[in-house]
Amino acid sequence: MQPVCLPVACPWPARGLRYRRGQGARALGYRRPAAPCKTMKNLRKLLFLVLYAALGAALGTLGAKYGLRLPHHAAWGRGQAAGLLALLPVAWLLAVLLHELGHVLAGQWQGFRFCWLAVGPLLWKREAGRLRLAWNTNLNLAGGMALCLPPPAGDLRRRFMAFAAGGPLGSAAWAATALGTYALLPIPASAVGQVLAASLAASGSISALLTLLTLIPVHVGGFYSDGSRLLHLWRGDAAGQLDLALLTVMAHSTAGTRPRHLPQGPLAAAAALPPELPMQAYAHYYRYLGALDAQQIAQAGQHLAAYRTQLLRQPVGLQASGWLESAFFAAAYEYDLPTARAFRARAQPSVLVTADVLARVEAALARLAGEPAPALAFAQAALRALPRSVDQGSAHLYAEWLADTVRWAAGPAEPPLRAGGSPGAGQPLAGFLHQ
Length: 435
Prior knowledge:
Blueprint: E1 2-4, E2 17-18, E3 29-30, H1 35-66, H2 78-109, E4 113-119, E5 122-127, E6 130-135, E7 145-149, H3 156-184, H4 191-215, E8 219-220, E9 223-224, H5 226-235, H6 238-254, H7 264-271, H8 281-293, H9 297-308, H10 320-332, H11 337-346, H12 355-368, H13 372-385, H14 392-410
Helix pairs in contact: 1-2, 1-4, 2-3, 2-4, 3-4, 3-5, 5-6, 6-7, 7-8, 8-9, 9-10, 10-11, 10-12, 12-13, 12-14, 13-14
């Protein structure tokens, strides 16, 4: 159960890529990773979720059926047992939902802006000022995740500590409410009432378990637990300094500050921290955006490569944006269509990838391939989606490239660039550089 308050994405050319120094993007030769490894990763994630839910459900069931009022319960029939088993997933979903709502409510209290919340197969997200319910198809988010964006001013360290503490506090509150209600209410006379009471106790027991597990300071699957984030921020150690630096930069970026105007001091300090820190890659990401916005293309490529070296250390659900940004850069600035397509192929669908990103990448691929019609359609779609982007700072940067792509697609036909080439006569350089 993780609150997300940092950008999403990140990459490293490990198993699937070969890199030869000094040869730029063309030196990246794509090899599709072996299918069994990918399958085993997904199986491990699924097994972890199943075991996590089963442990909480088992404890809740034992506590409900044999605890508190064991002497007063008659023997359960098969129908009651089946009913309880059927309601256990609902009990688990309710416990996880209230944990994530604890993060969201704490974030609202601290001035954070709610974006979306995923629990099991359900996803709630805010679009155009309205809350919308959709299906969550990403297994990586099934265990619960909330995305809230911090404000650009104020004591971010204190605010984020409150946000991180909101989840365990929400779980503790529901555990006390559910178990207290179960203990104090009279024993239901009907079989259905007994099953519902046991399900309530199971949900409360799962919440009690979540409170304990999320407060344990651990780093699992690319994420810090709530307790670990609280501990790092309270100590002010390297991980806490990194979180605070990235929060500061991200708060300005999501508020609309252009990448080249972001505070560079915190970014440079964050990039110098040990690369083993899970979120350190995002320092390179923001430095990449700043260099790109300042038209420092070579430096942008270096920062993006550093960002990409850490991609596979991140959860799969957070990798797609990194591969897509790499595809966009390879197509729009390095003019390497095979490499751009290889990066694009590595991006797995994720709720964390917004519509403007996907359309922008496809526009860059179509433009490099010399296909004006699809480039125009994708660029216009990306421009329509940009106002809904979480990061309004980088939206300024991309809007300029997309607007130029629209002008290119509407103008006279021009030959496509070849891999590793440069803009030829009559092909506007502005189409590949941001103002």
